[in-house]
Amino acid sequence: MENKIKIGLIGLGTVGSGVYKTLQNFDNVEVVKIAVHNKNKKRNIPNLDESIITDDAYEVVNDPQIQIVAELIGGTDPAYDLIKTAIKNGKHIVTANKELLAKYGEELFSFAQENNKVILYEAAIAGGIPLIMPIKTILAGNKINKIKAILNGTTNYILTKMDVLGESYNDVLVEAQDLGYAETNPTGDVEGFDAAYKITTLATIAFGQRVKLENVYREGITKIRPEDMKAANEMGYKIKLIASAELNDDGRADVRVHPMLVPKSKTLAHIDYVTNAVTLSGHPVGEVTLSGPGAGEFPTASSVVGDILAIVSELGKTDYILPMMRCSHTVDADMIDISETKNKYYLSIKAKNKMGVIGKIGTVCGDNNISLESIVQKELKEDYAQITVITELCKEKSMQKVIETLENDDSIWGVNSLIRVQV
Questions:
Q1: Best exposed site among 65, 88, 196, 254 by fewest CB in 10 Å?
Q2: Cα gap 86→90, rounded to integer Å
Q3: Is residue 198 among the annotated active site residues?
Q4: How far apart are CA 339 and CA 283, in angstroms?
Q5: Which domains does the chain have, with CATH numbers?
Q6: How far apart are CA 305 and CA 302, in angstroms?
């Protein structure tokens, strides 16, 4: 086919390789330049034309024949400047970069609008799961007010293995690293940064208000214990790292990432290993859950290529392409601090084995206007007891006062775990 749309790729790692291979199946596009970090690296890509490989990414964004640039390297530096340069040079952008969008999305989308270019980013939120385009098109008639999601395959794999095998976080992490599911430095995943980047952008799109990353509460999975997994199961829950966003009745946004006890009656409780899932709640649709592979070569390539082809289908037909997919947010979300939120809580407490301890826990909670749904004493030893508590709904700041009081009580050896419970 003549007049093929010219594509430039920045990055030829796992995702970039999948994108390149997938694009070979379409005769209306042509990859004409690919930027890589190391030109000499051996690549398992059949029929790869080495002449289009460069180690200077600016050759891609400055090439006048390229109409669409796919940025697939991640991080903010040099991705931020490369994307701005590409837009300035008249190119449309497809990216899988969740960190860049969470930190600089507002600025980049405004810059793209000023230059009448689009930035598409289906792959940046949940890998191969179609999410952004459905929200902006098929679900556009809905008022979405709640999101509960599993957006990180590494942490979901670790928590699933801990649950199935009864092993510790550290032991399962080593296995996940050996299998390639976790990075050598897993901080971005296990401390919740990755999921926080994703829910920041997802909430912004779903709520039609700009959510600021610095206002998103974040807590990872490193403190989850096998004992917590066992207790959760016995009470009818599974522990998952949940990315959550909700608009309250006053229109304020509560956006956060942290472990939760998810009732086994909920779909997300049964999303295991590296699978991702997103549950959207709104009117008139009710509740919709989309699930699938959240990462990987071809699942992520599926979303990237879909975005590329969406742009290709519009080029030459209009001077203002894909209006529904453009950012139209002009209002910053009024964010609720975590201390002001209301939650149910799971507490695991190690206390001295003596009379009155359970009563004391109940009294401390009552003094802070917290009612208890259940309190169970287990592992009764000669000198200590393990006590598990589930509270009713209460304010976060009240619960933190309870923790502080218990930690300073000489009959309490420690609060081992504090995990919020999905209602």
A1: 65
A2: 7
A3: yes
A4: 28
A5: 5-125+297-325 (3.40.50.720), 132-293 (3.30.360.10), 341-421 (3.30.70.260)
A6: 5
Q: Which of 91, 148, 161, 198 is labelled catalytic? A: 198
Give per-residue pLDDT as tens, 382-421. Answer: 788 999 999 999 999 999 999 999 999 999 999 999 999 9
Q: Tell me the three-class secondary structure of the chain, residue by residue.
A: CCCCEEEEEECCCHHHHHHHHHHCCCCCEEEEEEECCCCCCCCCCCCCCHHHEECCHHHHHCCCCCCEEEECCCCCCCHHHHHHHHHHCCCEEEECCHHHHHHHHHHHHHHHHHCCCCEECCHHHHCCCCCHHHHHCCCCCCEEEEEEEECCHHHHHHHHHHHHHCCCHHHHHHHHHHCCCCCCCCHHHHCCHHHHHHHHHHHHHHHCCECCHHHCEECCCCCCCHHHHHHHHHCCEEEEEEEEEEECCCCCEEEEEEEEEEECCCHHHHCCCCEEEEEEEEECCEEEEEEEECCCHHHHHHHHHHHHHHHHHHCCCCCCCCHHHCCCCCCECCECCHHHCEEEEEEEEEEECCCCHHHHHHHHHHHCCCCEEEEEEECCCCCEEEEEEEECCEEHHHHHHHHHHHHCCCCEEEEEEEEEECC
Distance CA 72, CA 9 (A): 7
